[in-house]
Write a structure and sequence with these properties.
The chain is an alpha/beta fold. It folds into three domains: 85 residues, Arc Repressor Mutant, subunit A (Orthogonal Bundle), CATH 1.10.10.10; 104 residues, Periplasmic binding protein-like II (D-Maltodextrin-Binding Protein, domain 2), CATH 3.40.190; 100 residues, D-Maltodextrin-Binding Protein, domain 2 (3-Layer(aba) Sandwich), CATH 3.40.190. It has eleven helices and 14 strands. The protein has a five-stranded mixed β-sheet, with helices on one face. Strands 11-8-12-7-13 form a five-stranded mixed β-sheet. A two-stranded antiparallel sheet has the order 1-2. A hairpin with a 2-residue loop joins strand 9 and strand 10. The longest helix is centred in the first third of the chain and has 26 residues. The chain starts with a helix and ends with a helix. The model has no long low-confidence stretch (mean pLDDT 87).
Length: 304
């Protein structure tokens, strides 16, 4: 069995990276070592798994079939072996988490600081991004996103209270331009918008009226992928912006921003920690899950 499994991690890396060089970087070996490892695996199986040209790498039909069957099995095997290893060990290792940039309460640090104190041998590797991708394929242990965008085959636990979106502007802007009374009025205002990447359209601002959801395609004078820039511009009187209420809360409390159109912005489920379904979760992830569940329980009790 060991002989058969030898080279599978190399093949999986090639299948996902579609590049011998990138596969080598992921595995921490040379491109030559990747090529030799794949060749030995193909020789043992007696079938070509990858077609290589000077410009591209793609899987053969046999390679596609092997990848589809082997990837989840190898993930479960690695997880099971790690779980057995950890039975007599303290929780340790690197925990990689992809976190939405607007998950303010999670990123505020309190829950994570308490976790770090409780588990000093676990290192947190947080990637703050609004890209939506397969966390398993990208090598993350878990992610934090709004519940509505999490895939149905994931396990998810809440890590925040209910959320609300809201439009905000400074008193300086409102004294000059007035306040919109309905979301449709926004098309006549100077708006500061958001989009995740330059190659996609700006986010359409979402509202609810009489139980019906709708969105408004504002035409932003400024568009950015950075919420801090949006907040600073709004505080400076540059226009109206839109986002999570908890992001704007400190600025509203200081009077730097005024909430707008709140009657059209009902609450909705908040942020969740999500991770793939496996028979055996890594111990480092299990202790984080239990920590966040207990933290959420205590926080809910404290605000009652």
């Amino acid at each position: 069995m060991i002989d058969t499994l030898e080279g599978m991690s190399t093949f999986i890396a090639i299948a996902e990276a579609r590049s011998f060089r990138l596969a080598g970087e992921r595995l921490g070996v040379t491109r030559s070592a990747v090529s030799q490892g794949l060749q030995r695996l193909e020789d043992r199986l007696g079938v070509a798994l990858v077609q290589r040209t000077t410009r591209s790498v793609r899987l053969t039909e046999a390679g596609e079939q092997l990848y589809a069957s082997a990837r989840p099995a190898l993930t479960d095997l690695a997880t099971a072996l790690q779980a057995v290893t950890e039975l007599r060990a303290r929780s340790r290792g690197r925990l990689r988490i992809s976190v939405s940039s607007i998950a303010e309460s999670f990123l505020s640090g309190a829950a994570l600081a308490a976790f770090m104190e409780a588990y000093p041998d676990i290192n947190l590797d947080l990637t703050v991004t609004d890209e939506e991708y397969d966390i398993v394929r990208e090598g993350f242990d878990a992610g934090v996103r709004l519940g509505e965008v999490i895939e149905q085959d994931m396990i998810a636990i809440p890590v925040s209270q209910e959320q609300r979106q809201v439009a905000v502007a400074s008193s300086h802007y409102l004294s000059r331009c007035g306040a919109p009374q309905h979301p449709r009025d926004l098309v006549a205002h100077t708006c500061i918008g958001w989009r995740a990447r330059p190659d996609i359209a700006p986010y359409r601002w979402e509202f609810t009226e009489d139980g019906r959801d709708f969105d408004v395609a504002v035409e932003p004078r400024v568009t950015t992928n950075d919420m801090n820039t949006m907040v600073r511009l709004a505080c400076a009187g540059a226009g109206i912006t839109f986002g999570m209420r908890e992001t704007f809360e400190p600025y509203m409390e200081r009077g730097e921003l005024t909430p707008l159109l709140e009657g059209f912005c009902p609450p909705f489920p908040g942020f969740y920690l999500y991770y793939p379904r496996r028979q055996q979760q890594p111990q480092k992830l299990r202790v984080l899950i239990e920590h966040l569940r207990e933290w959420s329980r205590q926080h809910r009790a404290s605000v009652r």
